[in-house]
Amino acid sequence: MNQSRLLVLPLLLVVLKCTLPEVHAQDPRFSQYFASPWNLNPAMTGAFDGRWRVTANYRDQWSSFLAPVPFRTYAAAADVRLGVSRNDYVGLGIGLMHDEAGTARYVQNKAQLGAAFLKQLSGGPRRADHFLSAGAQLGFGQNNIDWSKLWFSRQFDPTLEIPDLTAGNGEPNADASTNIYLDFNAGLLWYTLFDNNGFLYAGGALHHINKPAISITGDSDERLYSRWSAHAGGQVPMNENFSLVPGVLVMKQGPAFETDFGLNLRYSNNDYNELALRLGAWARLGNQLDSGLQMDAIAMVAMLELERWMLGVSYDITVSSLTRANNSRGAFELSLTYFHPAERRSKVVCPRF
User: What's the pTM value of the predicted model, to 2 decimals?
Assistant: First the structure.
C-alpha cells in the first residue's frame, strides 16, 4: 500500500505542474547550441557558406534514472541562401521540433517558417568583411499530455492494492491539449571574417514575443514566457592547422536564467577536401530557485567536419546536487549538418559556427 502511494504522488505532481494556472512552461535546450542555429537565433537563417543547409539534433536526458521515459528532444531544420546583390543575401527556412518529458509524456510540438536578410556593412581588399543579419520566425505550436500513461487515486483498488486502469479517473480535463497557438521570434546577428579563416560573431534573439497561451485547461492566463538570449564567439587561428573556437550563450526565460560557455580546439588539414576535428568542454550555469547561480553540468563535445558534413557528439556530466540521483550521468546529444555547395565557388561569406 505504501509503495502504491509513492507511485501516485509523483504522477500527481506532474499533473499539477502541467495544469495549475500559475505554472508557465519553458523551452527545451541543446548543449550543442552552436549546432542548432535555427533554435538559437532567427538571424542565423541563411548564415552559412553554400547554397542550402539541413540540420538535425537529438537530445536524450536523464536516462539513468528516468528510463524508459527520459526527456527527449528532436529538431530538424532546412534553410537556403539566395543572393540579392553582389554581397547581400536572403535566407529562407523551415524548422520543426518535438519535445517530450516525463511519465505523462508532456509533449511540445512546433513548426516555424523563417527569413533573414544578410547585409554586408563593409569589406574589400585588405579589409575585414563585416555582415549584419536580421531575421524573424513565424510558426505554430501545440502541447499535450498522454493521459493514458497516468492513473489517479480514484482508480486505485484497495482490495488488490493495484490501480484499476479500466476505472474512470474522474479528471475534468483528461485527454485535453492546448489550442494550436501562434509563435513569433526575432533576432540580430553580426559577424566579421578575416583572411586567415578567423572570425568573430555576436547576436541576440527574443523568442515567444507574443507570449502564446499554452494552457491545457483553457486558462488564458497561462502563457509561455518570452525568452531572450545573447551569444558570442569566434575562431582564433593559432597556426596553419590549429585554432581555438570559444563561445558563450546567456538566456533568461521567466524566472529561469542560464549561461553556457566553453572552448573547442579545432584541427584542420586545410586541404581542398577539408577534414577537421573539434574537441572541447562546455560548462553550464543556472539559477537554482533561491540558491543563486550554480554549476549544473559540463558537456564534453567532439565534432567531425568532412567536406559538406558536420557531425557532433556530446555528453553532459552532471556536477550539481542531482548527482546523488543520476551518478553524474546527464544527457547524450547528437547533431548532424549538411552544407550543399553553391553552384559557383566564391569567396567565403559566412563562418562555420
Answer: 0.84
Q: What is the pLDDT of residues 75-133, one digit of tens each?
A: 999 999 998 887 889 999 999 999 998 777 888 999 999 999 999 988 765 666 899 99
How far CA 115 is from CA of 39, 64, 193, 212, in Å, comes to: 13, 39, 22, 21
Buried b (16+ CB within 10 A) or exposed e, 253-287: beeeebbbbbbbebebeeeeeeebebebebebbbb
Cβ-contact 203, 231 below 8 angstroms: yes
- 2-340 belongs to CATH 2.40.160.40: yes
Distance between CA atoms of residues 39 and 59, nearest Å: 14
Q: Which residue, among 163, 189, 238, has the nearest Cα to 8 in the 3D structure?
A: 163
Structural domain boundaries in the chain: 2-340
pLDDT of residue 172: 67
Tell me the pLDDT tens digit for each residue of 295-326.
889 999 999 999 899 999 999 998 877 777 67
CA-to-CA distance for 128 and 239, rounded, in angstroms? 19
Question: How far is the C-alpha of 293 from the C-alpha of 236, rounded, in Å?
Answer: 29
State the maximum Cα–Cα separation within the chain, in Å, rounded to a whole number: 85
Q: Cis ω on the peptide bond leading into residue 42 (within 30° of 0)?
A: no
Q: Could you give the CA distance from residue 23 to residue 15 in angstroms, rounded to a whole number?
A: 11
Q: What nine digits make up the cell of 275?
A: 577534414
Q: What is the 3-state secondary structure (H, E, C) of 209-237?
A: CCCCECCCCCCCCCECCCEEEEEEEEEEE
- What are the tens digits of pLDDT across the range 57-75? 999 987 766 667 788 999 9
